[in-house]
Design a protein that fits this description.
Elements lengths: L3 H27 L3 H30 L6 H12 L1 H12 L9 H10 L2 H8 L4 E2 L1 E2 L2 E2 L5 E2 L7 H23 L8 H4 L4 H10 L5 H10 L7
Antiparallel strand pairs: 1-4, 2-3
Length: about 220
């Protein structure tokens, strides 16, 4: 990407798109359309991952402009198109905020690295056939999104995305962390936190405990 200004704008737009997808996933969940809610929640996760992949690119380019060449641009272009990479970047930034038990963190990461999350997303989207040896089995069983996604799984996924956004905003506004660009920072408002807490009633216990601690500190400018 030739222009850091363009990268910063893309990062902000990706995050705003993630918020749109996230809001829509909650709306669908509340209308008991759990499969579509799950699909949009995974897409929201990917857009957040893209945001911070771009932020990382901006950070390194600002430090060392000479590191940007045709090869690194090709790598970046491929990363932005990879669903698994974007899912992984969400996990990378989100897991710094979440303090899951030892049994949960490996499962979340393993789903991404093995492609299981992408498979789940596809299963929530299309009617198809079962696979054998990682290939479509034309004699396999028919599969349908209605049989593949459970409500509890959707609840957990949307909560994970919602918790992360809220905690990111709270930490930025209270001076515990910062993002690389003003464009993204301008989106991270306390009004957004209020909106998301009204839209989604669930929080993990770890998130609740962390927010109780961090909210003792004043909000900065």
């Amino acid at each position: 990407m030739k222009s850091l200004k363009k990268a910063a704008k893309m990062a902000r737009l990706s995050f705003e798109n993630a918020l749109r997808l996230h809001r829509d996933s909650i709306l669908l969940y509340n209308n008991k359309s759990f499969i579509s809610a799950y699909l949009l929640s995974v897409l929201a996760q990917e857009e957040i991952g893209k945001t911070f992949l771009l932020e990382e690119h901006i950070f390194h380019t600002s430090i060392n402009p000479l590191s940007v060449n045709k090869e690194t641009q090709n790598i970046m272009a491929k990363a932005l198109l990879s669903h698994r990479v974007k899912q992984g970047w969400f996990s990378r930034v989100a897991d710094e905020y979440f303090k899951y038990s030892r049994n949960r963190v490996p499962r979340v990461i393993k789903e991404i690295t093995t492609g299981k999350l992408e498979e789940k997303k596809q299963n929530a989207t299309y009617v198809g056939l079962t696979k054998q040896n990682n290939k479509l089995d034309m004699n396999g069983k028919l599969t349908s999104p209605t049989t593949r996604v459970k409500q509890d799984e959707v609840t957990i996924h949307i909560t994970r995305v919602n918790d992360y956004i809220i905690k990111l905003v709270e930490e930025c506004r209270r001076g515990f962390c910062m993002v690389e660009t003003y464009e993204l920072d301008s989106v991270l408002t306390m009004e957004l936190v209020s909106e998301l807490e009204k839209l989604w009633n669930y929080k993990s216990k770890d998130t609740q405990k962390w927010l109780e601690k961090i909210r003792k500190f004043e909000i900065g400018e």
